[in-house]
Amino acid sequence: MFVQRCSATRLGATLARRLAVWKLDVWGIPYSTPLSDTVALLVAELAANSVLHGRVPGRDFELRLSYAYTTGVVRVEISDTHEASPDPATVSQPDAEAEGGRGLLIVEAIAARWGVKDRVGPGKTVWAETAPGGAQGRPVG
Q1: Residue 125 three-state SS
Q2: Cα–Cα distance measured from residue 113 to residue 133, given in angstroms and rounded to the nearest whole number
Q3: Residue 127 clears pLDDT 70, i.e. is over it
Q4: For a tag on the chain, would you pick the N or C end, based on fewer CB atoms within 10 A?
Q5: Is 64 in contact with 23 (CB distance < 8 Å)?
């Protein structure tokens, strides 16, 4: 298990992604492997959403990673203190001209499973898991 608080800024989101791939490397999942790249993208999208949509002034977000050595599943959790939660059942395609709105679609496409859960205190945790063995799985949403 790895836990780190990051500032709710673009720099904090970048730091979360870099820390995630560093920790995976420490756990024996080398940089630039498919699993490392998948986790980096999950962290980048979830942290960016937290910074853009879940930011509460003066509050950080939290990155939590866990790795099940026996199955190869990596779980990414991003917690923030904003009350609004995405609904996995209602993730939809944005207009073709829209500049944003695709982050959770990316998460849904590359994660084996993802969802939202309550946390102690204000806010929520958005989580995503890789498929067993680190291969990309079919989204469950």
Answers
A1: strand
A2: 14
A3: yes
A4: N
A5: no
